Amino acid sequence: MKYNQKDVISEIHKRTGCSTSEISTILNTLGDVVKHKLSNDSHYVEIKLFPGLKITADYISPEQSKSNLPLSQFGFVLRLHADLSDYFKKEVRNLHHAIENNLQSG
Questions:
Q1: How far apart are alpha carbons 1 and 82 in whole angstroms?
Q2: Is the pLDDT of residue 9 over 90?
Q3: CA dihedral 49, 50, 53, 55 (to 10 degrees)
């Protein structure tokens, strides 16, 4: 199943009662802030969006890149990585099992 931004906004609206317009503004602004922080002039940036999700960006030399593209004319290559903590993954698995058990017993 795929969820787009509109689906996420609707779910947050149901859970919080905040207006969909405000939620949309916040999510779009969050995207802008993340892009701005990741494009920082530092060679390494780490952003923890919420407990369990971390996004990192680092700028590496073209030689360090695993790309097959001809990158030697660039001074650096942007490498992005999203990481979910083991604890967050465990919580998701537990929630999945609980929902699955409810469906089977219901």
A1: 20
A2: yes
A3: 10
At which residue do the structure tokens 């916040």 appear?
26
CA–CA dist 6, 24 (Å, integer): 8
d(C-alpha 26, C-alpha 65), whole Å: 34
Q: Which amino acid is at 100?
A: E
Q: Are 43 and 59 in contact (CB under 8 A)?
A: yes
pLDDT in tens, 40-71: 878 899 999 999 999 999 987 777 766 666 66
Strand partners, 82: 55
Give the residue carrying structure tokens 């503004």: 25
pTM: 0.77
Do the Cβ atoms of 9 and 30 come closer than 8 Å?
A: no
